[in-house]
Design brief:
Low-confidence stretches: none
Largest sheet: 9 strands, antiparallel
Order of helices and strands: EHEEEEEEEHEEE
CATH architecture: Roll
Strand order of the largest sheet: 6-5-4-8-11-10-9-1-7
CATH topology: DNA Polymerase III, Chain A, domain 2
Radius of gyration: 13 Å
Number of domains: 1
Distance between the termini: 22 Å
Structural class: alpha+beta
Number of helices: 2
Number of strands: 11
CATH superfamily: DNA Polymerase III, subunit A, domain 2
Strand content: over 45%
Helix content: 10-25%
Length: 108
């Protein structure tokens, strides 16, 4: 099975990008709380991790077909716990896989 969404990034870059995008100052208010999702998108061969008011592009190898929404809080908790220096992100049918672990996600 060939995925149209599959990139490998440095774990430290992913942790930094998700942390930057999930700060209170960079999130848009949504009702009583804050927006729950981050956007993962291609940006000239890099992976862009975005919230409403922040974006951080990190070096990536692979291809990312179109933007994906994933829960930012889940990514922030999960990313630092992944093993190894690199992380492979793959999106398949409503799931974002980070190495062997997955969380719900959806196409933008």
């Amino acid at each position: 099975m060939k995925a149209d969404w599959r990139v490998t990034v440095a774990k430290r870059d992913l942790v930094a990008a998700v942390g930057h995008a999930r700060t209170r100052a960079t999130l848009r208010r949504k009702g009583a709380g804050f927006e729950p999702d981050l956007t993962l998108a291609d940006s000239d061969g890099q992976l862009s991790v975005r919230s409403s008011y922040a974006a951080m592009d990190i070096p990536a190898e692979g291809s990312w077909a179109s933007p994906i929404f994933a829960n930012g809080a889940a990514l922030r908790r999960l990313a630092p716990k992944l093993k190894g220096p690199d992380v492979t992100l793959t999106y398949v049918t409503g799931r974002l896989f980070l190495d062997g672990t997955s969380i719900p996600a959806r196409e933008a």
